[in-house]
Design a protein that fits this description.
Elements (H helix, E strand, L loop, with lengths): L9 H45 L4 H18 L4 E9 L12 E11 L11 E11 L7
Antiparallel strand pairs: 1-2, 2-3
Helix pairs in contact: 1-2
Length: about 140
């Protein structure tokens, strides 16, 4: 026959074990969501940078437009980068008229993960995306 109160404290013990595990799971979901949103934002910024570069008339203008387009897209996505860079390959502007050519933009963003307190998680993650956009074949370059 069981004595009343023989299992006293078992609920407390279960809570002490399960609550930290649940909180760690929630933190992992938040970190995963933050990384996924950052990847999408950087890919969108790279696509916009390449598109802006492809509608420019000169290589210098393409680099400036790509930089501005990527920074604006990162701001629109509300993506906070510790540091970011935009590298534009404008070698397509050197191709003769009538020859297929393209420009590409590579956007790199160092995303801050310090707000998510998970043991072993790095303080930041560098995300890079590259996108290529064609130049108009018969456009004066």
């Amino acid at each position: 026959m069981k004595r009343p109160g023989g299992e006293r404290g078992s609920v407390t013990l279960e809570a002490v074990i399960l609550i930290p595990a649940f909180l760690l799971f929630v933190a992992l979901v938040i970190a995963g969501g933050r990384v996924a949103m950052a990847r999408q934002g950087v890919q969108t910024a790279a696509a916009e940078a390449a598109r802006q570069a492809s509608i420019a008339r000169t290589a210098g203008e393409a680099t400036a437009k790509a930089q501005a387009g990527a920074q604006q897209t990162l701001a629109d996505q509300q993506l906070q980068c510790r540091s970011s860079s935009v590298v534009t390959d404008t070698s397509g502007f050197a191709a003769p008229v009538g020859t297929p050519a393209s420009v590409s933009a590579t956007v790199t963003c160092e995303v801050d993960l310090a707000g998510v307190a998970i043991p072993g998680l790095p303080g930041s993650l560098t995300i890079t995306a590259t996108f290529q956009s064609p130049l108009d074949t018969f456009r004066g370059r």
